[in-house]
Every structure is written in C-alpha cells, then in structure tokens.
Amino acid sequence: MSKYALNCIGVLTSGGDAPGMNAAIRAVTRAAIYNNIRVKAIFRGYQGLISREIQEFNTQDVSNIIHHGGTILKTARCEEFRTAEGRQKAYDTMVSEGIDALVVIGGDGTFTGARIFAQEFNVPIVGIPGTIDNDLYGTDSTIGYDTALNTIVECVDKIRDTATSHERLFFVEVMGRGAGFLALNSAIAAGAEAAIIPERETSVAQLDELILNGFRKSKNSSIVIVAEGGGGAQAMAGRIHAQYPEYDIRVSILGHLQRGGSPSAFDRILASRMGVAAIEALLDEQRSIMIGIVNDEIVNVPFTKAIKYDKQMSDSVINVSQILSI
Ligand code: ATP
Hints:
Layout: E1 8-13, H1 21-34, E2 38-42, H2 45-51, E3 54-57, H3 84-97, E4 101-106, H4 108-121, E5 125-129, H5 145-166, E6 169-174, H6 181-190, E7 194-196, H7 202-218, E8 222-227, H8 233-243, E9 249-253, H9 265-283, E10 289-294, E11 297-302, H10 303-308, H11 315-324
Helix pairs in contact: 1-9, 2-3, 5-6, 6-11
This protein binds adenosine-5'-triphosphate.
C-alpha cells in the first residue's frame, strides 16, 4: 500500500475525444475500487475540476460503456486551467472533495497542464494517452489511434471504388496537425499511391513524380492521403490542378468522423491495460508520469519526456510506403 494517503482518486478526460476513452475510464474505476480506492468522476476535463462537476462512481457506473466511442465524462478545452487562479480553484476542489490523486486521460496539452498543476500543489497525477494522432513520445500507441486508422481505411476503400470508376485523382485529407502517423499508415493499409506528411517535406516533391510516372501514363485512379499538417488536401489539389488542368481531381476531407465509432478490440485492450497500470503506478507512488506501451510492455514515462520529445516517424515505414506505391 502507498505511503501517502490514497483513499480517493479523481478521473477526467481532456482535450480531443478519442475512441477507447470510455474503456480507460472503466478500467481506472474498476482497478481503483478493486484496490479499495474510491473514485470521483470529474466531468468536462479541467473545467469540471474548477467548477466542481463531480460524481462518485461505483463499478456499475462504468457498465456497458467499453464499446462506446467518445467519453461519458465529456471533454473540454479549459482556458482557466492555464491560469494560476484557475489551478488554485481546481486544487481547492480536490481538497474539499477529498481527492488524493488524479488520473488524466488526454494528449500533450493535458499532460502539460497536469505537470504544472502537480508541481505547484504536490499532487500525484498519472496520465493515460488518449488521442487519435498517436503523436506522444514514449508509447508505441495511444488510445484511439487504431480505431481512427481503421475508420480511415474503410473510408478510403470506398473512395477508391469511385476513383477507379471515374479515373480520378483523389486527395483525401486525414487528421494529424503535427504528426503524419494516421496519414502514412492509412496510406499503406489502403494501398494509396502517396502520403503527404508534415514530417517529410520531400513527400511533396514525390507527388510530382507520382503524377508523372503513375497517373499521367496510365490515367488510372490514384489516391493521395494528406495529413492536415502536411499542407491540406485542398491546397495540394489546387497546386496539381494548376499544373495538370486536364485531370479529374477531387478532394475528400474526412473530418470529425475519424474520431467517432466503437473502439477497436486493440484500443479496448490497450485502454484496459493502461487504466489498470495507472492505478498500480499510483499505488507504487509514481507521480507525474504517463503510462505508455512499448513492445507490448507497459512503461512509465515522465511527463517531462512525453511532452518535450517528438515521437519519431519510422524511416522503415516510410520506405515501405514508397516501395509499394510504384
Ligand atoms: P489532443 O492531442 O487531442 O488535442 P490535448 O490534451 O493535447 O489533446 P489540449 O487542448 O492541447 O488537448 O489541452 C487540453 C487542456 O489541457 C487545455 O484545454 C488546458 O486546460 C490544459 N492545458 C494545456 N496546456 C496547458 C498549459 N500550458 N498550462 C495549463 N494547462 C494547460
């Protein structure tokens, strides 16, 4: 048992929602109760901690949620938590509610706020990575990424049917402002001709090569996946249209549908493992860490590292995409 008091934990989801967050909430709740720790569910992320939107959870409160997308706790972006006054209010809530530690489920921003809060008030906090972008350093996968990837592949498969029938060149925009993991891996999985990702400027030059060698010669269909942060599909299509006005070019922006839907088995299992690990980490007196998974083993990653470092795109995966798109 932990040396510091761990009678009650608070759990919240923050930042963008991701499929599998509910599975994580369920795992955190049940693992805590299993260890005789009470659970207070905090609604609307840090906002709910400030304005005290809190409800005690028992095991039944997380029944029948593992298969649902989104988050039953709701999520929010909270400007007030960026201020010292806001964080003071959040701490006051923790004290008055008797919450000894927090489990926060979210992304980079959520952990940045958690790190500052933990430092200011000496609060034990453990993070669980929940974001479809998979852009967090220190973990092979984030909760929601696998589901979003599968959703994109399903959409691109459908787009290919019309692309092929009409001999069109399609630019499909997927989420990922700073990271191209969704774009690159969905391009491989859907057999797209190219992926434009923010990590590689050269991928734009390779697009010309694709047009010259592929689409122009065979006038077959082509699909190019563009990460949001890779320049945007509309801009890319405009550029190619100006150069090759004879081509039938279309743009499809997948948008928010990439976030929704029932989580994949992979994400449910990942979230369940991470939720249990978060409680075990708190019992083990770990604090200011993110739970990660590396080579199928659970790891504890200090917030400082998870926030500071960029997750590297694997050269070998980029290579696979290029070899297979000839
Ligand atoms: P996603 O990757 O899905 O966007 P995220 O966790 O990175 O998720 P953000 O909106 O960046 O999402 O951050 C979530 C919340 O964390 C913010 O609304 C804010 O309340 C808090 N936060 C972010 N950065 C800071 C900071 N520097 N100081 C205090 N709180 C912060």
